[in-house]
Amino acid sequence: MAAVPHHIAIVMDGNGRWATRRFLPRAAGHKKGMDALRACVRHCGERGVKVLTVFAFSSENWSRPADEVSSLMDLLGVALAREVPLLSKEGVRVHFVGDRASLSDKVRAGLAQAEAATAGNDRLTFNVCFNYGGRWDIAQAATRLATEGEAITETSLKRVMALAHVPDPDLVIRTGGERRLSNFLLWQAAYSELYFSDKLWPEFDEAALDEALADYASRERRFGKTSEQVSSTAVA
Fold this sequence. Notes:
The chain is α/β, with parallel strands linked by helices and about 240 residues long. Helices cover about 45% and strands about 15% of the residues. The protein has one domain (about 5-135, about 170-235): 3-Layer(aba) Sandwich (Undecaprenyl pyrophosphate synthetase), CATH 3.40.1180.10.
């Protein structure tokens, strides 16, 4: 039986659909999604989760309508100014994970400032995947090793992946009714438990998180072993 996951990763899907169903602009859905994320961070901390990683903006999201991309960038600015100080007070350490090369100098400076401001916190590590893609992550790690003249192995790749500072996720949650990873943590999710919720992200509340945790707790994680081997190890 699995206990509370040490690391939860979430694909926060459904903000746009939540807004469309209410005849609101998609930007309103993203703002509502920010409220859901704020609550989720708090709930995870209360449940004893030590690492939370969320897919905030994928490398593919640049192809969305320009006004939606612009609103997402504006929302990031608001989050950096308003949310980071609150997170810091709650003992949350913030990491931004992704390709920063294509971001503006102002955005890059904001991300670095948020990380520095929360660097001393240890209650919960909060990874925000922004301009991130799983394939990009593997490629950048391989490129780095090749540049350094180091052999590319599973061990060396793991050391230079974008989330090398935390253990791989125990549980990956996706909201919005879709059943795929969408280029999220392709390397790190190799042995993660997957949980799919039909709730749109703005609707994913404390009760929904508890349902996901209960489902996770009912599973047996074998990592390639048999049930008998897992049971004998647990007894030992």
